[in-house]
Amino acid sequence: MLRKLVTALLSFSLMISSPLTWAFGLSDLQNTLEKSAVISGDFEQTKDIAMLSKPLVSNGNFVLSEKEGLLWLQATPFPVTLILSDQTLRQKMPGQPEQVIHAKDNPMAFYFSDLFLGLFHADADVLTQQFSFELDGSPEAWTLVLTPAEAPLTKVFSQITLSGGHNIDALTMEEIRGDKTRVTFSNIQHASALTDEERRAFND
Predict the structure, then answer these.
(1) What span, in angstroms and rounded, lies between the C-alpha atoms of 201 and 204?
(2) Nearest one of 59, 167, 61, 187 to 120, comparing CA atoms
(3) Which of 50, 57, 63, 201 could form a disulfide with 40 if both were Cys (CB 3.0 to 4.6 A apart)?
(4) Residue 115: pLDDT band with limits 50, 70, 90
(5) How far is residue 137's CA from residue 23's CA, in Å, rounded to a whole number?
């Protein structure tokens, strides 16, 4: 009886001194990120270019639709609208003809566009196939550091870092040549469908 009591006390003391730990993994991150058919919000993009003394800063808002693609509305320093779908990338600027790029004509541009969308969703296939990664934190505050594992990413990026909680709050892309782009997201909203205004913006 005494031996059993001592064993029980030792086991209890070990549990107290060495609490169980939980490793926050990629599947946990995917479960943490809020999922919906439409995600929208504001962005601020800061681009540090090696040859420039001051960073380039732009602001605007975005709409990410599961069905339609990505709507990127830059408001400052000048208005630009980018509409990305599966097969086309459209750019609109006031007073200029619309520019349209097709996936079949510029597959590399769409490779990086698809990569961006995969990062935004923390797509496990994108992350595990094309990067080695380190993930630290918890569902409330996490940081994911990605190191490209194969070309063409290895020729462009040295590291990509995402951070956030239940949404992605920031995305930082560091390039081999020394340039660095940081995008911060705010006022994130989730919806089950596009508004009429958003639908028109995608289709105009």
Answers:
(1) 6
(2) 167
(3) 63
(4) confident
(5) 9
Identify whether the C-beta of residue 185 lies closer than 8 Å to the C-beta of residue 170.
yes
Query: Would you say residue 51 has pLDDT above 50?
Result: yes
CB contact set of 16 (below 8 Å; sequence gap of 6+): none
Highest mean pLDDT (candidates 12-16, 45-49, 82-86): 45-49
What is the dihedral angle through the alpha carbons of 88, 89, 94, 97, rounded to the nearest 10 degrees?
Answer: -50
Q: In the chain, pLDDT over 90 holds for what percent of residues?
A: 58
In this model, does residue 6 exceed pLDDT 50? no
Count of other CB atoms within 10 angstroms of residue 190: 14
Q: Which domains does the chain have, with CATH numbers?
A: 26-203 (2.50.20.10)
User: Using CA atoms, how far apart are residues 184 and 204, in angstroms rounded to an integer?
Assistant: 27
Q: Which residue has the higher pLDDT, 13 or 109?
A: 109
Q: Phi, psi (5° rounding) for residue 7?
A: -60, -45
Cβ neighbours for 131, distance < 8 A, ≥ 6 positions apart: 146, 147, 148, 149, 153, 160
Instruction: Check pLDDT > 60 for residue 18.
Output: no
Query: Does an H or E element contain 72, and which?
Result: strand 69-76
- Our CA angle for 40, 41, 42, nearest 5°, is 150
pTM for this prediction: 0.82
Q: Which residues contact 149 (CB under 8 A, 6 or more apart)?
A: 130, 131, 132
Only one residue has tokens 């990509």, namely 160
